[in-house]
Amino acid sequence: MSLTFQEFKKFAFDDAIVKGIPINGTFSLTPRCNLHCKMCYVCNPAEKVGGELSGEQWLDIMRQARDEGMLYATITGGEAMLHKDFWQIYEGLKKLGIYVTLSSNGTTITAEVAEKLKKNPPVRMAISVYGSSPEAYEKVTGSAAAFAKAIQGIERIRELGIDLRLRTILTRDTAPDMEKLVPLILSYGVEFNYGNYVLMPLWANRNDPRSQRLSGQEIAEYTVKIENAIQEYYKMRKNSAALVIEETREQPKQNPDRKELRRKVAQIKANAAYKCNGGTAGFSVTHDGFIRVCEITRDPIFDIKEMGFKEAYRRLKEEIAATPKCEECETCPDKKRCAPCPPRHFMETGSYEKKADYLCEFIRAGVKLIE
């Protein structure tokens, strides 16, 4: 039976989880960005958090990761294209035979950049959108001009036919604009997702993410508005997307080996504190060369420059496997509606074993609205 690309990718990830292969890597080339979003947990001048790796250093790490089984990679930042060796890194990673996704705010996709991507496209481009107008962009990012640049960047990627995903995040400043922003994003006819959790900063910076947090009740209410806006958009345009979604829910028949693989994956995740692929099939690398489980944490981390990728990943897996579960989460009646996340717990409470009250707040508020 032939597999679609997404089916093959799912199979490859499951196999990697069972075997402990680092199939998926995220590389944060720089913490610098040309926008100053209040809710950003990453953005910071590089000189305050340590020097950025050079293009040669990045490619050496990426080559080591490829040799250990990496097949998929995401290049991100900050704004990754601000790295002085961006094209050396991007083109070098593609030459390693890796499926590359580029993450951007869209404003750096000039005509020259689009021409280079046309000749050597990524497998996917992910662009964050922060408002439906120049005024909304200025409120969120500090730059009204960024709106036109981002829209132009999105249109250039669409013209190239590159697989595009658009995304946004629900914050104190973006919330009032959501009923306009969602239809704008949907008008491009590409995959769309949004986040509703504003992370705490990885290090002290000029941003104040906490001021951008909504209450649990507000998050739940705006989530309903966003979902309604999505439904209304398709209803008004008599779009067949809902039918397509229903059709894709039908899973192809699985052979016994595939079912056994899924059973093993489910068992691994059931026994682990981490319910994601972090530390089993995925990893992230900081701008200064430290491996970590994902972009939202700096603990545990190991220096790849000092010990090499293979040893650093081995140590990371050991730390992740030893991370204790949050017992309060394990006994919570809303457990199935929530995916406990150790890095989020640590960021919120300083401990992996304590529940994060803020996370509980908006999950429970959402449950009440559903009921």
Task: Explain what this protein looks like in three dimensions.
- α2 (55-67) runs parallel beside α3 (86-95), α5 crosses α6 (145-160) and α8 (216-236) crosses α15 (357-370).
- With 371 residues, the protein is α/β, with parallel strands linked by helices.
- It has 2 domains: 5-248, TIM Barrel (Alpha-Beta Barrel); 326-371, no CATH class.
- It has 15 helices and 9 strands.
- It has helices at 5-19, 55-67, 86-95, 111-119, 134-141, 145-160, 178-186, 216-236, 241-248, 256-271, 304-307, 309-322, 327-330, 342-349, 357-370, and strands spanning 24-28, 72-76, 99-104, 124-128, 164-169, 191-195, 282-285, 290-292, 302-303.
Describe the structure in brief.
The chain is an alpha/beta fold and 371 residues long. The chain has 15 helices and nine strands.
Keywords:
about 375 residues, alpha/beta, nine-stranded mixed beta sheet, about 45% helix, globular
Total domains, how many? 2
How much helicity do the residues have?
40-55%
Number of DSSP strand runs? 9
CATH domain class name of the largest domain: Alpha Beta
Largest sheet, described in full?
A: 9 strands, mixed
SSE ordering = HEHEHEHEHHEHEHHHEEEHHHHH
Shape: globular
Q: Work out the helix count.
A: 15
Return the average pLDDT rounded to an integer: 88
Tell me the distance between the termini: 41 Å
Tell me the strand order in the biggest sheet: 6-5-4-3-2-1-7-8-9
**Per CATH, what is the topology of the largest domain?**
TIM Barrel
- Relative strand content: 5-15%
Rounded Rg: 21 Å
The low-pLDDT segments are 239-251
Structural class: alpha/beta
Superfamily at the CATH H level of the largest domain? Aldolase class I
Would you identify the CATH architecture of the largest domain?
Alpha-Beta Barrel
